[in-house]
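Message: I would love a firmer grasp of how sequence relates to backbone shape in proteins. Thank you; the sequence and its tokens follow:
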Amino acid sequence: MAAGRKTDGIRTQQPVFVGPHQLLRPLGEGGMGEVYLARSPGLRLLAVKVVRAEYAEDPQFQRRFRQEVEAARRVTGFHTPPVVDAEPRGRRPWMATSYLPAPDLGEVVLRFGTLGETGTRALGAAIAEALAAIHAAGLVHRDLKPGNVLIARDGPRVIDFGISRAFDAAHLTRTGMVCGTPGYVAPERIVADSATTGAADVFSLGCLLVYALTGRTPFGDGEPAHVNHRVVYEEPDLSGVPASLLSLVASCLAKDPAQRPTVMAVLGALAPADPAAVLSPWLLADLDARERQAEADRGAPPADPPALPVRKWQSLTRRGLLGLGAGIGAVAASAVGVPLLLERRKQAASNRATVGQASNPWGAAAKQPSPLPGGPAPVWTQSLSGLMEAQISLLGPTVAWWAEGQGAFGYDTSTGRQLWSSAPDFQAVEEAGGLLYAPSADLQTLSWLDSAGTNHSSPLGSTVPAAQQTYAQMSLRVLGAQGQVVVLAFQTVEEGGGVITGVELGTGRDVWRHAIAQTDAVYTARGAEQLLSGSGSNLGLVADGRCYYQDNGVTYAVDLATGKILWQAASTASGNGTLPYRLVRTADLLLVVHGQTVHALDEASGKQRWTSPTVPEVALGCALGTGRLLLAGAFGTAYCLDTATGKGLWHTTVAATTPTGAGTSFRAPSAGDGFFAVPVVQQASGVAVLSAADGAIRWMARGSAAENVWTTAASGQMVYCASSTTLRAYRVSV
């Protein structure tokens, strides 16, 4: 990557190039490498996949990758985006294909529903035609799944062909495991990968047809090992497949590859089919928005040039350091790398300079008094000492001051009088639903404190098996409790996996248990919480008899009593999957806050209601007020949107709300009646109180120079502000 250079004493950010192509922003990442949106010298948009360094250094991978790229260049089918450039040699091999501003099949089904028989026929015919072109070039796709099928305006496209064999071979050599997506990998690949032929792609195509028709895979979900066992030994579930397609789909899913039809036979059985049959009005509207964004990308400078990934460790708290020692910290380090965006502060300042123009989707910038008025006299104050990296939470009529892995103290919200302190062995982990939770060291008991400081406990039984305890101790999350069920999440021994489980209080019996695919759904979320202290990923929440959680880009609504999935919906948040996200619940919506976007899902059905304008800065924290959501940007600007419509209402430059010094933490904003409270880290730290109506800063609470870390909680017309030495209560009038 090109380094920054100085011009007239000012450091500027140079563009980042791979070969001759300028990188604009990350699109995603996978096991083999990272994918970036790039712009060619001729202003064409490209998807550039850059191979991870650990694979690039493998001679076997280099040889196979070079062969695969050469073969991929020969693929010329309409339903396969062409390979336009590549550098298969060198320290970071890469390959570029034409970029399509289109969602993948998984996103389409989850957001807009299944395709029906006519749409599925069109989809299957296009995929079969693409596979015919791929096989004719001497390639086997090996990873055909919903995420590798884009639904463009003029027909589906199959992507990520031509690289999987090299990656698969390297991964098989290192781990002894076959790569691929459980539920779409052919049985012969699971038991003997050397036997892989084009028939394996036909099997995956059959799985895709079932998914497009029913919204599920024919072999169910769950732990990958269980899914793979069903693929090899059990018959597929074809309920919901219409009779006219049943025979074709069943033949594609035959265990014996010799019994499956060829891709040309599948194409003959499905054609003729109208490509427009897959395009619903909602999908067309989505494509319109993506194409407008692509046009803007083609002509605009990159907002924040991405850096090619390097191994760079960040300082972590005690739990994060344990994770690194256990060999699972790479993902956590990726998550807590969000503050590295601060290194590009100059570029962000340039972005903010444009905020306030008439075309800004977040409305006019609020005018602020200078200097900012000081806050009113506090209603009460209380001296604090003894906890490091502490935060505050409201537990009914009590404000609790607590820190992860340390104790907790409760104060009366009206008078500030200390009401209770936790027992020395109560090692607070987190607050959820007005309770403070702490597991025992051996994970056999879960304890929690209520607003009165009463310590309750329940056995966990066999919720965390002995073999999982080391990982679970570093990643355990408490999502919340209702009735007799508490929901826990933790990472499992399997790399990249975890568990979300509903546990019966009093008995410790597992009521239900869901496997989750991504490490960052559990451990990384914990790492973000530690660094950001309350403003990172909250993974999930419990409310009104449901548990909502995110896994691998999908939001799930689960019946709390049974674990039944009531609905699932793609989180349409784009960009780096390691950025923190939050789930926020209004009266009838579930808001998915991720990176620089907010998506509103109907609480009853999971259907998407709206998407917010893009926030110019990464949103590191949020607070929900009455009908309004505040997003605290990484570079000091607060953005407010209408929760009913997703429309941007106003934005306010507060201060450097993200820390610049090592060891400090970003703190989440809070919301009261008609105001937001935003912690500020700058020369004089404190809390800025903003009017929810227009974003104007009414006043700012400040303390002594020693009070360098502040956190807030608000309710009604009261805001509680805790620094490193003092807890204060203020009455807010706006």
User: Anything to note?
Assistant: The chain has a mean pLDDT of 77.
